[in-house]
Amino acid sequence: MLTDIKLHESKIDEARHIIWEDAPFFSSRRSTGIIFFAEDGIRVWHIVEDHDNLRRAISLTIERIEKSHSRGMH
């Protein structure tokens, strides 16, 4: 299980929220055949339409991130 997931929540209006992560991305534009670069970017994981579902959406988002990260490790 991942313990260093740093999710952020931004409120759109009274009901809607965006769950997002600031994450590094491989930069093919800046990388060469020898040196590889990463850039920071924003990864939107979920847009919650109903505030009552926010906690459930965060739990599901963490599950998705853990699955995504474990696929990347193989």
Detailed description of the structure:
The protein has one domain (7-73). Helix content is 27%, strand content 38%. The chain has one helix spanning 54-73; strands spanning 7-11, 17-27, 37-48. It has a 3-stranded antiparallel beta sheet. Strand 1 and strand 2 (17-27) form a beta hairpin. The longest helix has 20 residues, at 54-73. The mean pLDDT is 81.
The helix tally amounts to 1
Mass-distribution shape? elongated
Strand order, main sheet: write it out. 1-2-3
Please give the oligomerization state of what you see.
single chain
Mean pLDDT: 81
Give the H and E element order.
EEEH
Largest sheet composition? 3 strands, antiparallel
C-alpha-based Rg, rounded: 15 Å
* Count of strand segments: 3
Low-confidence stretches: none
Report strand %.
Answer: 35-45%
Structural class: alpha+beta
Helix proportion: 25-40%
Kindly give the count of domains. 1
- Terminal CA distance: 15 Å
